[in-house]
Structure formats: structure tokens, C-alpha cells
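seq/struct pair 1
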Amino acid sequence: MTIGNLMRLLSDGEVHSGEQLGGSLGISRAAVWKQLKKLEAMGVELDAVKGRGYRLVQPLTPLDGARIVAHLPAAARRRLARLFVEDTLPSSNEYVRQRFGQGAGHGEVCFVELQTAGRGRRGRVWTTPWGQSLMLSVGWRFDSGVAALEGLSLAVGVVVSQVLEQHGARPQLKWPNDILLATPDGALAKLAGILVEVTGDAAGPCDVVIGMGMNLSLPPAMREAIGQPVAALADACPDIDRNALAADVVAGLLGMLVNFETHGFGAWQAAWNQRHAYAGQAVDVLVGNARSAAVAGEADAGGNLWVCEDGHDRRLAGGEISVRRRL
């Protein structure tokens, strides 16, 4: 019995007795109770209905590999080598990296309902409740060196934003790896993060793993625990089809990847700048413990962000640099 099995039984939002759950899972009612407590500790909100059983406060749609593939257009199916949907993993990026180590990985996509050791840029932890996010990693092998990958994370942001726009959202982009969305109170906050990891020859073939984590819904208690503004797609699109969204993201990313090596970020540069959340605004540039005031400009064809500091233009080239709106 896995947490995933239990979540799929509860996913309809109906009340299920401990006896029913135990019978379906082949465990005792006491064991069911322990698993339900684990779910609550993981941020899943449960409603205990006296004398009847338990239900999810927020019904969810589990990811389904067959439904995702069925929703893909023909071109994306041809580019997709293999699709995995896992209940729990330490990290979907690590899973795809291991696939490369086994001689596979290229054109493979891994979705995961819950990551136990997921991380974002600069080692930050990325945590969401089971089934209430969209977490995936895509593997792609490039023949050119690392220099040909400049701006790749920004192109990913453009593609995902375009998909979200098709579903009715209006995201904005924060250099270099974040997708922002307005929260219910109007504040612009992080919706999704992107992490691109590269291994291989600096001047030759290299394996790339693109990871993305997006909040689809967030319980109020988890928003409060995060301690800073955070957005969820349900804020703008409450009735989104999770599997259809997953398929659209996969199709968009595979379509971009097959062309990126030839065209570079320049093909997505204008689209990124159109969605740039901080264009022309006062920002703080953070490099380690150092902070400087600047005005944000545009991203260039290499994916670098230009800013103006004390009347002088400066190019930010990623790495351990962060840009935040100046309050």
C-alpha cells in the first residue's frame, strides 16, 4: 500500500469510511488512520465526518500517463521517448539524470506527485502537498556545447507561460527562472520555478535535465507556513484539467527543445521581454550577500538581463544572481 493508492481512493472528494479504505487497500483500520495522519503531515487537508469517515477538503485529479499521452498532438508523441508518472520520488530531476546514466533519458519526461527532496535554484527546497502541483523533469541531449544552451531556462519560462495563457491565466516572468502570477489579494508572487541542470562536455555533447514545479492549489495553512507571497494556478483557473495541462506543457517543451539548438534563445527573446514582470522598474540585484539598486532593462539574445546602476549599464549573466522588485 502506498500513499498514492490512498490518495487515488480519496481523490473523488466523497466520504470513505476507514473500513472501506482498509478493505480496498488490504490493511487494517488502524493502519488507515496512520496513513491519513501522514497525509495531514504532508499538507493534505482532510475532513473527518463523524460516524461516516474521511474525505479530502479539496478533491484532486491524479496524474494519468495514458490520459496525458492521449492528449498530446502527433508531433509531440513522435518526440516523446518515454513518459513516467511516479507517486513519490526524492527528485524527478535526479530520476532523469539516472536515466541518462543508463543510456536513456533523451526525450523522456517524468512527472511526480510528491517530491521528498525536490529543490529549486540555489538549493532551495520546493515542497507542495501530494497531487496539488505539477512537477516534472524533461531530459534532452544536445550535440553542441554548453554555450549553445544560453537562455534555455528563459525559453522554458516562455513556453510554460504560453501554455498557461491558453488556459486563461496571465503569468509574468522573473529573470532568470521564475513564473509569477497574481494572488487573490493582487500581489504578484511565484507560481512556478525552473531548474536546468547540465552534464557533459563544455564544447561537445551534453545531457540536459529541465525541472519545473508549479503550484496548482495551495491550502491556506501551507501558504501561511511558507511565510511569503506565493501563487497557485487555481487562483486564476479554478477548473483546470490537470492531465490536459500536463500534456500541453510536455508538447510545448518538446517543441521548443527540438528547435532550441538551431535558433538559440533569440527565437524566444521578444516573447520573454513581453512578459518581463520588472521591465523598467526599480529592483535590487543580489549577488551573495551584496545588494545593489538598479533599474531592470530587457533580456538579450543570450538570456542575460541588462540593468542600469548609477547611470551605467550592467549585464547580469545568471549563476548566483537574483533580482527582486525594490519595495
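seq/struct pair 2
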Amino acid sequence: MLDYKLLSALAAVVEQGGFERAAQVLGLSQSAVSQRIKLLEARLGQPLLLRISPPQPTEVGRRLLNHVQQVRLLERNLHGQVPGLDSQALPERLRVALNADSLATWWAPAVEDFCASNDLLLELVVEDQAVGLKRMRAGDVAACVCAAEVPVSGARCEPLGAMRYLALASPQFMRRYFPDGFALAALPQVPAIVFGADDRLQHRYLEALGVTGGFVHHLCPSSEGFVQLALAGLGWGLVPALQAQEQLARGELVELLPGQHVDVPLYWHHWRQGGELLDSLTGHLLRATRSKLIPL
């Protein structure tokens, strides 16, 4: 029989990114948290954490974390069904990983009603759409929005739709770098904006135009900051059409090549044994995104 106090300590260390924060969340000393994890490792006869910064679960640790996530959700199903159930033992928040552009555009309107009607709190972990699934594999989120179509073991994958990205820049940027009109050959030499090391959208855009190799670019790991850099004329970049509607209408941003875009498919991954709450949220998201994303 698993000791869930020990499992809670393991989950807290991974979710909080360290022993000190885990101790604060659990109301324990850092030493007590460490001892609980050591005891769990001793009982299982193998390490569960890699003691790096931040701590990372081993393969067995991931399996245990996945189990903890699913147990938390299943426990929530009992709330209101079993008289006298200690509500304080229920999870406070549902941990979901999603990309910054979804968070900046369609996510909040899509889940507002559901969260209010189900008294649901969220803990959002922002990851690039290309790598968000690693959070599911690590066992520290119950669901994620990402571009990967193949689910991890024990999870389901549902297509949400595609986000359309437009290559945009400010009018002053276009006048500065393309005074005689847009020139594709010059594009790799003018500043672009890239979200981060895992962001390949600008690369995909250039490759679709037949341009290969490197290009000069700023790095800006903020969806809102990305747009602000483009508005200020610092560079061109791929911006969600949903996010740039007003700026396009006002002429504050313009397309580099009208009609040339990149569509990024988005999928909703969630644990099979996630209980009624996760199943209901899945159905709600599938309905809510029909009017916000491009059908796949």
C-alpha cells in the first residue's frame, strides 16, 4: 500500500521546483520533506529524484507522479458524494501546461464559464507548444495543450484546432529595411523576433519560402512582449492572427507577405483516469474552441 504523505512530498518537490518551496507548501521543515522522500526511495529500493536544480523525477518517479495526479482528480469526484469527506484533502488547483500564445488569446475565454461553474482553480505552466508534452511525461501536470498528436502512455489526445500565425512587422520597420519593397533575399539579414530556443515558427516560415540557414533575431520569451517588440519596429515575427486583429485593423502591424502564414495544430492531452472533472473540461474545451481555432 502506497503512503500518500510520502507521495505528496515527492509531488510537491517536483511541482514547486525544490525542497524549500515544497516544505512551505506542505507546512513542513525542509528536512522533513527530504526524509519523506528518502523513506519512499528506501521502500521502493531505487531513487525517485535527480538532485539537480530544479529536481527532476527518475522514470519510476514519473510513474508515481502520474499516479498522484490521477488520484487527486479521482478524489475530487468524491466531493459532495461522500458525506463528511474532508474537503481540505482535495486538490486546490488543476495543473495544466499550455503555450504562451494560447494563454494570451483563446484560453481564458474558453474556460471562464467552466471554472466558475465547477469552482475550479487552475495552476498554469507555460511551455512552448512544441515541448509541452514533457510536462505530462514528467507527471507534474494533469493535462496540456501542445502541438504533439501522439499521447503519452495512459493519456488521451483530442484535436482542438489550429492557430494561424502571420508574419508581421510595423510600417516603420518595413520602411527602414525594405525601402524599395519587400525583398525575400534580404529577410535573413533583417532582425526577426523568436520566442525562445524551442520556437521554430520563424524557421518554418522561412523554409516554406525556400530560405534555409540561420537568420538574425531577438529572443523574447513573452507573448505580449513579442508583440510589443514588433510594434516598436525592432523586428518581424510570427504572431497569432487572434492576437493581432486590432493592430492589423489600425495599421500598426502589416504582413510581410499577405496570404503566407503558418498554421500550428493544437491538441489537448489528459489522463485517461482523470475523473469526471477532467472529462467534463475536455468536452467543454472541444466545444469552446470550435469558434476560436481553425478546424484540423
